[in-house]
Amino acid sequence: MSVHKEISKHSNMQNQLVQQFMKLDEQREKAIDEAVQLCSEGKPFTTDHINQVTNEINTLARRGVVPQRKLVITEMVEEYVARLK
Questions:
Q1: What is the pLDDT of residues 9-32, one digit of tens each?
Q2: What sign does the CA torsion over 55, 57, 62, 68 have?
Q3: How far is Cα 57 from Cα 60, in angstroms, rounded to an integer?
Q4: What Å distances lie between residue 63 and 5, 16, 66, 84, CA to CA?
Q5: CB atoms within 10 A of CB 66
Q6: Where in the sequence is the domain holding 20, given as residue range(s)?
Q7: pLDDT given at position 44
Q8: For the segment 58-83, what is each residue's pLDDT rounded down to a tens digit?
Q9: Cα–Cα separations (whole angstroms), residue 25 to 3, 10, 51
Q10: 34 Cβ partners below 8 Å, 6+ apart?
Q11: Reported pTM
Q12: Looking at the 3D structure of the chain, how many domains does it have?
């Protein structure tokens, strides 16, 4: 019976990590969209919020189960916006 409890505990922990990742990944995508919008309007922007969330995601990823994400630099956003035009 204790093996079953340990497996359930492990499974629940992995599920929590995945749920946390999904929320953070959604926040990251929203921050990227905001930076792209500002850049396409010629307004100043930073990638600080994107990378703060990315660092949180990568901290989770070190615990296994969820993937890491790359940090974003302003040039990446500028290049993406240039390709859209």
A1: 878 888 999 999 999 999 999 999
A2: negative
A3: 5
A4: 20, 12, 8, 36
A5: 20
A6: 2-84
A7: 98
A8: 999 999 889 999 999 999 999 999 99
A9: 33, 22, 11
A10: 45, 49
A11: 0.87
A12: 1
